[in-house]
Structures are given as structure tokens and as C-alpha cells.
């Protein structure tokens, strides 16, 4: 796959620059702009549609809240009447005369007061069972048509806590249908019951929908439209309308339907009041074309502007590419002259654009090449001279390498002469000195084992014992067997021992001792150098610890305590430096640790 792409790219090298630019403007500009324009237009159209849908859903939600507020009042009234003793006594009392009954009816004004007090309530009536002897517009005896009606039978079949919302005719209002609350009212004390019907005001329901921008309606669980922006729809069944024949079974949400032959959006929201076994649905419908027509017009205008702009751009690219090609051809002619070895030519292409800058850089490059050719001749002469000097340096280095071997051989001759003459002490000291010098020179920068480091320390202490004698200087050296092969930087313990002998025991006349202890603790090797000398004064100890942080290192102190501390930090990291303890007059105690594996700090 990669080879095919590479081959296709190489083929483009045979296309002239002017054609490449035209193809590039088409591929890089024309097609992406058309795609982006199409995508933006579709996105803008969809965004407008989504905003309209969201606005409609917000409006429907607002209608839901308003309808819920309207339905809340008849629910509260029915709850009060359900426990109202006055209603129970009125319905279940036995009156001696009709006059007493009429008087009791007249005194019970709560139904009329509710209707007058709340504009949402159009009428309240109560059906008694068993029927009362006299009926009025508030208290009615259910006739056969009422008893056989679906809503009445459903109310008797349910408990008194269940509310039903039905669009039913009101026989006291010329059988005009209203959205009504239907609820069974039980009188447990009298073992009787009745059916309460509260009609909602139709005008109040229509008023909620009258200001909506789109066709909006409310229908009950049977599909009957109880309120609508277009009043002529009220009373129709939703299934009889072509645009929403299946809408009664749809849950809350947004759907697409055909409305009057046009694709439309329909938003459905459910209203289920408390204590109710059924509810209402709010529906709002709008055609998609009516919403996106402005977006389509903007899209057409945008495509027209894009087409005009791209046409102008194509013309400008054509003339610009022709001009650039001409200037590049002029520069190419000069390059051809240089290719045949003529370095004295000059490009005459002017201008401050990239091609003009390339022309100036080309002229500068030719001048630099001529200058470099002269420098190459001079550098060749200097190179030959440098090789001669290097040979001389190598000879001197070989001569300097013989000096340490000569010194070792001389010391070995002195040792053997002393040994032959029976002076074993001098022989041993010269042997230790030679061994110490050889080890120090041969080590270099490589790491050594802890055992090798302590061998150097032992040689150093033996020489110092020869200098001070055994009564003035003794030493103890302990090497943990499990740590003898741990690798450490060379000459890391010897400077600490040297510091203990020279500075700690210099003023001790007798019984001076240096103790070197190595022990393994967990994952570290702890190394301690201790002496019983005069110790370090407090202020001097603080100066030494402060000097540990200095970076600059004078030549004469490079093997001192600070040098060892910084080597440990650089090798193993923070936490592996020297730790000094020196109570006045009680000697000096120096401790440091290294990882058991000898890992470097990277």
C-alpha cells in the first residue's frame, strides 16, 4: 500500500507547476469548501429544526404545567368533599317533608361557591345512590342512560381514592361535553356512596393553547380532543385525523408524521395528575418546511457566494502560477550553467518574494562556495601540520608511560636488596608502598570491589603504622563477607581513613586507633570510619557540612571529605552522602551507605 502511494506521488513530479497549483486549488480548496458548505448548511438546517423542536417541547412542557395547575383545583375540591361531613349528612339524612329537603339543598351552597370562586371550574354535580326523592342541578339521581354509561360504571367499579378524567356530556348544560373529574365518594358511616363530577371550563383550556405558534391540542385517554388551538377540533377523536391516526398510542417524545401532505414534527407530552388512573396528552405539530425554509434560503445564498469566490480564485491562481513558472525557468537556466562548472554566473531574478529570496541566496551560496574552496586549500595544509604534531605527542606519551614502570621496578629492587640484607621491616614497607602506588595508578575510572578498596586502605594503614609505630597507631578493619564483592567507586574510603590519621590522630601521642567497619543492613552496605582523636570543633564541623553543598572544587581539596561526599551523591543519589559526628574530645565518626547491588543513580 505504501509503495503504491509513493509511486502515485512520484508521478506528480511529471506535472508542470501551473497544473499542479490548479489541481491543488481544486482538491484542497474547491472540494473541501463545497463539502464544508454542504455540511454547514445541513447542520444549520438541522440546528434550526432542533431549536424549533426544543422550543416546541418547552412550550408543551409549559402547557403541561398550566394544565396541571388547572387540574389541581378540582382534585383538591374532590379531596375536601370526600371527607366533608356536611355532604355526607345532606345525602344520607331522611327528611320528614319535601320542604325540609329543599331547604337543606338550598343551604348547601358549596358547589355553587366553588364554581364562583374558581374560574377553572364550570360546574359540579353529584349523583346519589340510592337516589334522593328530589333532585336539583347539583344533586341528581342517575337515570338509566347515566347508569349504563362507561364513565359511571368505571367510577363505581373503582375505589374512592381513584380519579378519572373523561370528556363527557353534562345533562345540566344541554348535554354539552366537558373535560370532567369523575370520582366515587364513599360514606362509610351510612354504607352508601355517590359519584362526583366536576366539569372544567372549556374556555380556560382553550385559552392556554390560543397563543401557541403551532397547532396544539389536548386529548384524553380515549383519544377525544378536549382542547385545541383550533376550537373546531374539540370533541373530535384523534384517530379520525389523518396526520396523527396512531398518535394516541405514542409515549412522550418527538416524532415525524405527514401533516396535510407535508413532513411534520409532532411533540407529545403526558399529563398524569396525582390520584388519577388516567391522564391527558398534549400534542403540538409543525411542518418541517415552515421551519427550515429560511435555512434553505441562506444555504442557497451561501453556495452562490462560494461558487463566485472559487471562480475568482481559480482565475487568480492561473495567472499567478504562470508568473511564478516564468521566474523559476529563469533561475533554472542559471542552475544549468553552475551544473557544468561555471561558478562565476549570477542570477538576475529580482523581487522580495520566496523566489527572489531564493535567487539572492543562490548568489550568496556561489560566493560562499568560492570562499570555501580557498579555505579548503588552507585547511588541508593545516591538517598535514596537525598530523605531524600528533605523531610527536604520541611519542611523548609513550615515553611518559615508562616512568611509573621504572619507579615500580626501582622500588622492587630496593625491597629485594633490603630483604637480602635481612631488613624485613624495610622490605615490607617498600612492598606496601609499591603495591599502594600500583593500585592507585592502575585503578583509573573503573569501579572496584569493596574488598579491593579495603586492601588499599590496609596498605595505607600499614605504612602509617611504620611511620607512627604500633603504640601510637593501631587499626581494626572488619569486612562483612556478604558485601566483599559489592562494587564501589575507587578511593572512596581511603580519603576518609587518611583524614582520620592526619587530622584526627596527629596530636595523639599513644593508643590512637582507627576503626573501619562494613556491615549489611537490609538493602544497603553501611560503612563506618571512626577514630579516637581530638575531634572537630562545632563551628568547623558546620563549615565542613556546609562545604558539602559547594559545586566548585579547588584542586588541592579534590580528595577531601567534600569530594567524597559529592562523588557519593552523584553516583547513588541524595541520601547516600557522608554523615559526620564529632563530639568535642571524643573523636570523629563518619558514616555513609551504598546500595547493596551497587546501582548507579541515573
From TrEMBL:
Keywords: ATP-binding, Cell membrane, Kinase, Membrane, Nucleotide-binding, Phosphoprotein, Transferase, Transmembrane, Transmembrane helix, Two-component regulatory system. Its EC number is 2.7.13.3. It is found in: Cell membrane. The keyword Metal-binding does not apply. The chain crosses the membrane at residues 21-44. It comes from the Bacteria. It is an enzyme of class 2 (transferase). InterPro entries: Bact_2-comp_sensor_kinase, HAMP_dom, HATPase_C_sf, HATPase_dom, His_kinase_dom, Sig_transdc_His_kin_internal. GO terms for cellular component: plasma membrane. It catalyses: ATP + protein L-histidine = ADP + protein N-phospho-L-histidine. It is a multi-pass membrane protein. Pfam families: HAMP (PF00672), HATPase_c (PF02518), His_kinase (PF06580). GO terms for molecular function: ATP binding; phosphorelay sensor kinase activity. Coiled coil: none annotated. The keyword Transmembrane applies. Residues 492-598 form the Histidine kinase domain. Residues 322-374 form the HAMP domain. This is histidine kinase. The lineage of its organism: Bacteria, Bacillati, Bacillota, Bacilli, Bacillales.
Amino acid at each position: 500500500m505504501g509503495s503504491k502511494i509513493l509511486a502515485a506521488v512520484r508521478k506528480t513530479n511529471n506535472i508542470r507547476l501551473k497544473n499542479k497549483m490548479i489541481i491543488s486549488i481544486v482538491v484542497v480548496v474547491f472540494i473541501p469548501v463545497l463539502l464544508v458548505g454542504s455540511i454547514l448548511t445541513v447542520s444549520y438546517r438541522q440546528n434550526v429544526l432542533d431549536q424549533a423542536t426544543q422550543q416546541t417541547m418547552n412550550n408543551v412542557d409549559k402547557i403541561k404545567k398550566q394544565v396541571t395547575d388547572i387540574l389541581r383545583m378540582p382534585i383538591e375540591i374532590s379531596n375536601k368533599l370526600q371527607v366533608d361531613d356536611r355532604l355526607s349528612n345532606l345525602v344520607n339524612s331522611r327528611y320528614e317533608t319535601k320542604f325540609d329537603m329543599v331547604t337543606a339543598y338550598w343551604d348547601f351552597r358549596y358547589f355553587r361557591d366553588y364554581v364562583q370562586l374558581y374560574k377553572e371550574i364550570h360546574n359540579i354535580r353529584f349523583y346519589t345512590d340510592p337516589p334522593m326523592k328530589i333532585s336539583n342541578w347539583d344533586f341528581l339521581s342517575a337515570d338509566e342512560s347515566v347508569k349504563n354509561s362507561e364513565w359511571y360504571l368505571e367510577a363505581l367499579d373503582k375505589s374512592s381514592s381513584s380519579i378519572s378524567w373523561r370528556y363527557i356530556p353534562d345533562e345540566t348544560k344541554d348535554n354539552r361535553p366537558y373535560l370532567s373529574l369523575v370520582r366515587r365518594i364513599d360514606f362509610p358511616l351510612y354504607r352508601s356512596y355517590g359519584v362526583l363530577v366536576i366539569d372544567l371550563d372549556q374556555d380556560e383550556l382553550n385559552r392556554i393553547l390560543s397563543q401557541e405558534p403551532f397547532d396544539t391540542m389536548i386529548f384524553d385517554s380515549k383519544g377525544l380532543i378536549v382542547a385545541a388551538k383550533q376550537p373546531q377540533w374539540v370533541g373530535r377523536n384523534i384517530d379520525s385525523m389523518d396526520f396523527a391516526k396512531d398518535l394516541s398510542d405514542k409515549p412522550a417524545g418527538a416524532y415525524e408524521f405527514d401533516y396535510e401532505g407535508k413532513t411534520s414534527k409532532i411533540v407529545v407530552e403526558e399529563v398524569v395528575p396525582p390520584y388519577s388512573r388516567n391522564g391527558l396528552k398534549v400534542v403540538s405539530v409543525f411542518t418541517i418546511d415552515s421551519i427550515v425554509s429560511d435555512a434553505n434560503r441562506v444555504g442557497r445564498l451561501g453556495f452562490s457566494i462560494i461558487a463566485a469566490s472559487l471562480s475568482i480564485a481559480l482565475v487568480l491562481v492561473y495567472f499567478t502560477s504562470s508568473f511564478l513558472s516564468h521566474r523559476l525557468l529563469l533561475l533554472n537556466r542559471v542552475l544549468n550553467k553552475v551544473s557544468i562548472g561555471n561558478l562565476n554566473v549570477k542570477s538576475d531574478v529580482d523581487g522580495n518574494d520566496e523566489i527572489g529570496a531564493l535567487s539572492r541566496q543562490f548568489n550568496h551560496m556561489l560566493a560562499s562556495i568560492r570562499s570555501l574552496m580557498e579555505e579548503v586549500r588552507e585547511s588541508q595544509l593545516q591538517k598535514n601540520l596537525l598530523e605531524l604534531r600528533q605523531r610527536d605527542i604520541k611519542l611523548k606519551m609513550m615515553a611518559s608511560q615508562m616512568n611509573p614502570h621504572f619507579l615500580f621496578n626501582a622500588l622492587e629492587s630496593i625491597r629485594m636488596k633490603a630483604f637480602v640484607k635481612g631488613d624485613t621491616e624495610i622490605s615490607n614497607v617498600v612492598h606496601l608502598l609499591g603495591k599502594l602506588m600500583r593500585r592507585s595508578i592502575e585503578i583509573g575510572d573503573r569501579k572496584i570491589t569493596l574488598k579491593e578498596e579495603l586492601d588499599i586502605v590496609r596498605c595505607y594503614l600499614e605504612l602509617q603504622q611504620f611511620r607512627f609505630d604500633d603504640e601510637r597507631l593501631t587499626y581494626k578493619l572488619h569486612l562483612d563477607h556478604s558485601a566483599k564483592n559489592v562494587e564501589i567507586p575507587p578511593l572512596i574510603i581511603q580519603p576518609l581513613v587518611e583524614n582520620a590519621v592526619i587530622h584526627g590522630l596527629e596530636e595523639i601521642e599513644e593508643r590512637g586507633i582507627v576503626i573501619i567497619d562494613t556491615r549489611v543492613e537490609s538493602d544497603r552496605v553501611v560503612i563506618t570510619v571512626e577514630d579516637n582523636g581530638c575531634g572537630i570543633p562545632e563551628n568547623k564541623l558546620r563549615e565542613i557540612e556546609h562545604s558539602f553543598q559547594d559545586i566548585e572544587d579547588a584542586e588541592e581539596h579534590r580528595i577531601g571529605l567534600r569530594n567524597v561526599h559529592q562523588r557519593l551523591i552523584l553516583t547513588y543519589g541524595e541520601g547516600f552522602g557522608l554523615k559526620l559526628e564529632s563530639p568535642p574530645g571524643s573523636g570523629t565518626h563518619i558514616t555513609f551507605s551504598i546500595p547493596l547491588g551497587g546501582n548507579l543513580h541515573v
